[in-house]
Amino acid sequence: MQLLRQIPPIHELLKDERIQASFQNGQISYEQTKKLIHEGIEQIREQILNNNQAHSFTRDEIRNQIVETTILLVAQYKMYNLQPVINGTGTILHTNLGRARIAPKAVKRVVDMAKSYSTLEYDLHTGRRGSRQDLIESYITELTGAEAAIVVNNNAAAVYMVLSAFTQNTETIVSRGELVEIGGSFRVSSIMEESGTKLKEVGTTNKTHLFDYEQAINENTKMIMKVHTSNFYISGFTSSVERNALAHLAQQNNLIYYEDLGSGLLYDLQQTGISDEPVVRTVLDEGAGLVSFSVDKLLGGPQAGIIAGKKKYIDQLKKHQLARVLRVDKMTYAALEETLRLTRMGEVDEIPTLHDLLKSQKQIIEDVQSLLESSRNVQNLKIEQCETESKVGGGTLPEVKLKSYGIKVSSRLLTARSLSELFRKHIKPIIVRIEQGKVLVDFRTVQTEEQEEILKAIKAIDTQLK
Questions:
Q1: Does the pLDDT value for residue 133 go beyond 80?
Q2: Can you give the three-state secondary structure of 371-399, one letter per residue?
Q3: Helix spans in 326-360 (H)
Q4: How confident is the model at residue 181, as a pLDDT?
Q5: Can you tell me the distance from the alpha carbon of 38 to that of 43, in angstroms, rounded to the nearest whole number?
Q6: Closest to 414 measured CA to CA, from 439, 436, 435, 389
Q7: By CB neighbour count within 10 A (0-12 exposed, 13-18 middle, 19+ buried), where does 459 fall?
Q8: For 379-434, how does the pLDDT look when each residue is reduced to its tens digit (9 = 90+)?
Q9: Which of 48, 69, 120, 268 suits 460 as a labelling partner, its CA being 20 to 30 A distant?
Q10: pLDDT at residue 180 above 70?
Q11: Cβ atoms within 10 Å of 43's Cβ, excluding its own
Q12: Is 57 helix (H, G, I), strand (E, B) or coil?
């Protein structure tokens, strides 16, 4: 096609002062700029080939479009892939948005440890090598009543490690109703099979009885495992076996009773009326030999998994080869230690997850009304207060709905989907919900300091619609 011959060569485009400015400031290399120009050329080439009106392009228009496309590509190249966002969805532990936000004091500890040498594996008392597992074990044993504990990089790793260490080539009994699938299509049954244990399913999806476990025990059985169904909720014609009965059965048959708690509560939510989920201490008191749970869910810390329980089991795990494979780094320990310290001191309101979970409706309404007052001059968007329900999320407390408030934003000029995209493309992206054809921002998960950014986004969108 004749028009394709009008595309300037790369060496000529490199002379354009707008493109030169992109690499002369040192933020991007000359070679990378060339690659991005080539990408810009390919985009305009495809546009010419697919555009029935291609004959209307002039050489200058082609050149300008390549330059503008390249400048946009350069800007995208400079951007971080991992970016902070404002969570307006109302889901407190939003897996796609990074689950738990860690406490400001924990952030400071991470920064301090990241920029300094540390006592990660150094004992100040003896002047000799220490163990990183000793850094937080006393916190966990104090908060849970466990005899000992170990930290790994997430709860799936904890499950894998426990089964690999204790049940390889032997049988583990688990109820069919507890073979859950967690995020990303990972299934508990698959993790169990990968660990080398032989999975022995008992009962049915909705009903499992003690006699199901009793009949399944044989000379090859090593463990009874209970999996907390934290990401779904079954009601109606159901039955499951209490953990104290399973613990007693395991003890009678010299088996390990292990409970995968999933989220793992250290702070008792029963006193708030939000949930009757048991705390880890209760699970251990009722006979579990081992428990494991996530740190970045209801505990409100960094991504990690904790295994706690009887010392004889934890000591074996500490010596296992997987302990090194699955260990966490100094920054995770720093954030985890501070999160556990805040929990121990009763300063749970400083832990963002628990702060949002326990946030009063009065506070949420006040925040909403403050934003409505500040956005009164908006002309092309309709903004109204609304009542809504928040979720805990992250595969935890699926039956819990938290009454909340937020704003609904709509425009006669844009669809809700287009509006949500504009919020998402704000300088600090704002992730929203769409309900009944309107954009909804749930203020339970919006922080006070983020409200000004939401107001800026509303005003910027309003200006674009003039």
A1: yes
A2: HHHHCCCCCCCEEEEEEEEEEEECCEEEE
A3: 330-344, 352-358
A4: 61
A5: 9
A6: 439
A7: middle
A8: 999 999 999 999 998 878 878 899 999 999 999 999 999 999 999 999 899 999 99
A9: 69
A10: no
A11: 16
A12: coil
Measure the CA–CA gap between 171 and 224, rounded to whole angstroms.
9
pLDDT of residue 230 exceeding 60, the answer is: no
CB atoms within 10 A of CB 450: 19
**In a 10 Å sphere around its CB, with 0-12 CB exposed, 13-18 middle and 19+ buried, how is residue 46 labelled?**
exposed
pTM for this model (two decimals): 0.88
Residue found under tokens 């796609």: 96
Taking the C-alpha atoms of residue 141 and residue 134, their distance in angstroms, rounded to an integer, is 11
Looking at CATH, the fold of the domain delimited by 104-350 is given as: Aspartate Aminotransferase; domain 2 (3.40.640)
Please state, in angstroms and rounded to a whole number, the distance separating the CA atoms of residues 385 and 402.
17
* CATH number for the domain running over 86-94+355-464: 3.90.1150.180
Three-state SS letters, 1-18: CHHHHHCCCHHHHCCCHH
**317-360 residue pLDDT tens:** 999 999 999 999 999 999 999 999 999 999 999 999 999 999 99
Token digits of residue 365: 């309404």
Cβ contacts of 285 within 8 Å, gap of 6 or more: 145
Quote the percentage of the chain above a pLDDT of 90: 65
- Listed in order, the ranges of the chain carrying CATH 3.40.640.10 are 104-350
CB contact burial 68-80 (16+ within 10 A = b; e otherwise): ebbbebbeeeeee
The confidence score (pLDDT) of residue 75 equals 82
Which amino acid belongs to residue 369?
Q
> With contact defined as beta carbons under 8 Å apart, do 159 and 193 qualify?
no
Residue 153's φ and ψ, nearest 5 degrees, are -80, -15
- The pLDDT assigned to 6 comes to 76
Kind plus residue range of the DSSP H or E element containing 86: strand 86-87
* Residue 250 CB coordination number (10 Å): 23
pLDDT on residue 70? 86
Tell me how far apart the alpha carbons of residues 17 and 134 are, in angstroms, rounded to a whole number: 59
